[in-house]
Amino acid sequence: MTIKGRKFQSSFNLVILRQKLLIDVPTTTRAQLAAEYLEYCRSNGTPPIDSVLQQIRELPENTIGGTTRAPRLLLADCSLLGTAPTDALEALMRKVQFRKVELDHTDIDDEGAEALFDMIEYYESATALCIVGPRHFGIRGWQAASRMIKKSSSLSELEVSGGPLEPSHAPVLARALRPAACRLRALALQRAELAGESLLCLVIALKTNTSVRELRLGDNSLSPTDAAQIASLLRSNTRIQLLDLSNNQIQDSGLGFIADAIVNQAAHSPPSPSTISPLSSRGYESRGLAFLVLWNNQLTRNCAHHLSKLLRSCPSLCVLNVGRNALGAEGVRALAEHGALASLVSLGLQAARLQHDARALSALIRADTRLQRLDLRENKFGVSGLQAILSAMKENTTLTQIDLDDPPETNNSSVNAQSCTEAATIARLLSDIRAICRRNEPATTAPDRLLRKISLTCHTAPTPKVIFNVKLSDQVMLERGGGGRRFGI
């Protein structure tokens, strides 16, 4: 690889030289670094990127010189066509390392991608790389990305979203996931038109991968057939702890494939019990799924037996989100029976069509579980449904957070005595439920309470930007949107 005319072949020498480059960087101020970037732009014959200059001026002083990583470098809506704009960025990259580098709807071709990815790998510039929006680079760019993934000792998170991953490019990316030396822990391929051949390439590579713990494949139009491919991955790979399949179309039959795979996985390689939290120091080495997101996958009440089988076979599972699916009371009833919820800490049932029969939900709340968080928004329970929830909560000792919708706002022109009375009753019931959640709060934080404040909010509408914030190493967030009241916080 060549950086500014210097060619290195030994990986050992590369590490030593990287460290020496950072150690030997003289003390540099933000103003001096901005001036160096402008000089690099002038010598490469390319205009400076205004947003880069602004980010340089806002850098914490202790990040210049490689002692501390800056939060992020955002390259949004700019041009990195050809090598000149990226070569100019070397003025910054050689002196500052970042936790995250983001390419957000950036015009970048093969030449620019090769230069940037080689630079990120050489200077260990990022622990996370996000590529959002359509991409204009082809095989050469993906080959450079593959080399970066294989050689970088710092890069642990990769997100590619908002543009198709072409079937001809998927094998190149897949090759970087096969080596035992792969260090990626989080892989997100979302809104990437991944169904079919591209998914198959990645599944084959991930079957032998031992580093990836978080796999997010949301918004890819995945079908039941694609779910069968993911099931084959789960049979072979017991190290994946977080699987996000939100906003696909795997349907009941696809969930059946995944449930069978988890049963098979548990039989041949018993998962770690959920008492070993993925957030604990031992969590990285634990086996079996801990987080499963099935939001908006056209599931119906007929998937109830699949969910029940999956939960009974997977004691490692801590968080399950099946919101925005038509489970109905029958689906919830299956979850409450036969101790299926014994391991769960958080359960997402937002918009699950539960409003017509609260008895099944009451049975779930009364069940002997470890459940600490329950999301019930957008189910339109009304007074009778909330009364049933409150009655069940009086017998519950574990739930510390229940998400429910705020009382509906009343239009002054249409207010009458009945609507005022109903709104006041709903507000009182919500307040009483919240009080019981506070009552259930432990006096001290026990080890099994680490996952208590996990957001289960998702959305179905496509957004221009995807937040890459689900980490097993931090307090886990599965949030993609807002709204609704959270009780027990």
Automatic annotation (TrEMBL):
KW Zinc (keyword) present: no
Entries under Pfam families matching the protein: LRR_6 (PF13516)
Cited Gene3D superfamilies: Ribonuclease Inhibitor (3.80.10.10)
UniProt feature coiled coil, ranges: none
Keywords recorded for this protein, A-Z: Leucine-rich repeat, Repeat
Superkingdom to which the source organism belongs: Eukaryota
InterPro entries, per the entry: Leu-rich_rpt (IPR001611), LRR_dom_sf (IPR032675), PP1-Reg/Actin-Interact_Protein (IPR051279)
Family to which this protein belongs: Belongs to the PPP1R37 family.
Protein's name in the database: Uncharacterized protein
